[in-house]
Design a protein that fits this description.
Helices cover 22% and strands 35% of the residues. It is α+β, with helices and mostly antiparallel strands.
Length: 290
């Protein structure tokens, strides 16, 4: 009996220590240490219409689900905008049907049309969105220089629609920016927009800044001079294929770009058929723990 008691006095602390180690291991994430895997995508959803100009949100839900992405940046998102999207809130509906958190950044936010005016009528909005399987911690809608499509004789001026959603990827903060740059052949507005985006993304932080992604439709090819300043600080997840138009792609105008602290493992375009007039870009990344 004295032997058993002596063993118990020595073994019990050892078992306790082993238990603490096992508990810590069980609660730590499997990717603890170097990096966390993350699949991201960008997709211009064309206000819910396909390349055939038919509004079909079910078709787009199937396309988005097939990407199996953790984070998705969306462009041309209608929220109660008009008859073309059946006055529906596409941001909220896509998030709900995909089981993802939603952040929406309107570019335009207009009063309801007179025929629809009533005390509870929602505003007509159009913009960009971020869908995320991971919790969204903060949302900001920054301004860019824009040439409005909603008025006569527009001039370049600051307007919202540069969305920043800070998400917690398994405990690692990540700033996800969604953008849609000017479509006109003259690059002057895009040049100003790139400068505006860089000013936002490169602003100092009170503490260490999170890594960030830039997801969007840039309406310019990778070698366009107006995009050159982006590539001085960001890396392009090149899918190796054009993204527009979806049915016979000729131009690569849709992008996943990453900052320092994010490793690009691969990138591709996804075969989503005619669900939109753009093809999505999907990238496999690894997010460094900082």
């Amino acid at each position: 009996m004295r032997i058993h008691l002596a063993l118990r006095r020595h073994v019990a602390p050892l078992l306790l220590a082993i238990g603490l180690v096992l508990t810590a291991s069980a609660t730590a994430h499997p990717a603890t240490g170097r990096s966390v895997p993350l699949r991201v995508a960008t997709y211009n959803v064309h206000a819910g219409a396909g390349a055939d100009e038919v509004f079909d949100l079910d078709r787009q839900v199937r396309a988005l689900r097939s990407l199996d992405a953790d984070v998705i940046g969306l462009q041309e998102v209608d929220v109660h905008w008009g008859a073309r999207s059946e006055w529906r809130d596409l941001a909220r509906e896509l998030g709900h049907r995909l089981g993802m958190h939603v952040a929406f950044g309107p570019i335009y936010s207009l009063a309801p049309e007179p025929a629809a005016s009533r005390p509870t009528a929602p505003r007509r909005e159009f913009g960009v969105a971020v869908l995320s399987r991971h919790p969204v911690l903060r949302v900001r809608n920054h301004e860019l220089t824009r040439l409005s499509t909603q008025g006569e004789n527009p001039r370049p001026e600051p307007a919202p629609g540069f969305l920043q959603a800070t998400v917690a990827v398994r405990g690692v903060p990540l700033d996800v920016y969604a953008t849609h740059l000017d479509y006109r052949p003259d690059p002057a507005v895009r040049t100003a927009q790139v400068a505006d985006m860089l000013q936002v993304m490169n602003r100092p932080c009170p503490r260490r800044c999170p890594a960030h992604l830039l997801l969007g439709d840039f309406n310019a090819q990778p070698d366009a001079p107006e995009l050159a300043p982006l590539w001085a600080t960001l890396r392009d997840a090149d899918p190796g294929a054009p993204t527009f138009p979806a049915t016979a792609p000729e131009s690569r105008i849709d992008y996943v770009a990453v900052s320092a602290g994010v490793e690009i493992r691969s990138a591709r375009t996804a075969p989503t058929g005619s669900a939109s007039d753009h093809l999505p870009v999907v990238a496999e990344l690894r997010l460094g723990r900082r």
